[in-house]
């Protein structure tokens, strides 16, 4: 695991979301949720752009052999809710390859196997209807959109019970530093309150109300 992926793995998505807000970066993947709240995921993006199937139809899963261990499969299926783009064969293969997880702007199916293998999958929802002959992969490792957030190949994605955030590669150092500062301040507030301090006093002392305030560019 590279250094910044490791740093991101120690922050929850809420903390990273606040850090993104500090810099005016839209990295919160709207309505993308874990199929199991226990799922945790951190890694760099391997992106796919999907579209309606052509005639004859293209494929939906042949890319998986090119995904490296520790990467996150990020699939822009345009938020489609009428057909899936990920199922049990892809889950089993990705899990065996030690892929970090899968994020889909759209649907998956075969969620029972995801939970059995503890393979993290984050989507808008799940349903059983296949995407075969309905959708296809148009391009790999290109910029995509996931829940209104832009994801480029190599960006860091972090997922937990609250959803998914993306940290753009060109901003990752400052976002991670801000996230670590926010986490440290919030931990200090909790410790102070446990020690008997009033919450409003603790928040004032550790500047809680300015933690995610947008900085001037």
Secondary structure elements and pairings:
Layout: H1 3-9, H2 13-22, E1 33-34, E2 41-52, E3 71-76, H3 88-96, E4 101-105, E5 107-108, H4 111-117, E6 121-123, E7 125-126, E8 135-140, E9 144-146, E10 149-151, E11 156-160, E12 163-167, H5 172-194, H6 199-205
Parallel strand pairs: 2-3, 3-4, 4-6, 5-7
Antiparallel strand pairs: 1-6, 2-8, 2-11, 9-10, 11-12
Give a description of the structure.
- By secondary structure, the chain is an alpha/beta fold.
- The protein folds into 2 domains: 26-167, 3-Layer(bba) Sandwich (Glucose Oxidase, domain 1); 174-210.
- It has 6 helices and 12 strands.
- It has helices at 3-9, 13-22, 88-96, 111-117, 172-194, 199-205; strands at residues 33-34, 41-52, 71-76, 101-105, 107-108, 121-123, 125-126, 135-140, 144-146, 149-151, 156-160, 163-167.
- Helix 3 links the parallel strand 3 and strand 4.
- Helix 3 (88-96) runs parallel beside helix 4 (111-117) and helix 5 runs antiparallel to helix 6.
- The protein is elongated, with a radius of gyration of 19 Å.
Q: How much helicity do the residues have?
A: 25-40%
Q: Return the average pLDDT rounded to an integer.
A: 95
N-to-C series of helices and strands: HHEEEHEEHEEEEEEEHH
CATH class category label of the largest domain: Alpha Beta
Q: Kindly give the count of domains.
A: 2
Biggest β-sheet, characterized?
8 strands, mixed
CATH superfamily of the largest domain: Ribonuclease E inhibitor RraA/RraA-like
Attribute tags:
single chain, about 220 residues, 2 domains, about 30% helix
């Amino acid at each position: 695991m590279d250094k910044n992926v490791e740093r991101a793995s120690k922050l929850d998505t809420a903390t990273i979301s606040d850090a993104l807000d500090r810099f005016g970066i839209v990295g919160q993947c709207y309505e993308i949720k874990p199929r199991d709240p226990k799922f945790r995921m951190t890694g760099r993006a391997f992106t796919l752009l999907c579209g309606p199937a052509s005639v004859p139809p293209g494929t939906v899963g042949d890319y998986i052999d090119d995904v490296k261990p520790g990467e996150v499969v990020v699939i822009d299926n345009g938020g489609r809710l009428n057909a899936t783009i990920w199922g049990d064969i892809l889950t089993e293969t990705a899990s065996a390859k030690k892929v970090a997880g899968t994020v889909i702007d759209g649907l998956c199916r075969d969620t029972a196997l995801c939970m059995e293998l503890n393979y993290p999958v984050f989507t808008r929802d799940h349903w059983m209807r296949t995407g075969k002959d309905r959708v296809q992969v148009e391009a790999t490792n290109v910029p995509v959109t996931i829940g209104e957030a832009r994801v480029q190949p190599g960006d860091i994605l972090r997922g937990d019970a609250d959803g998914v955030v993306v940290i753009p590669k060109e901003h990752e150092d400052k976002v991670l530093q801000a996230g670590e500062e926010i986490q440290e301040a919030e931990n200090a507030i909790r410790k102070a309150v446990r020690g008997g301090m009033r919450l409003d006093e603790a928040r004032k002392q550790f500047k809680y109300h300015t933690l995610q305030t947008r900085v001037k560019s």
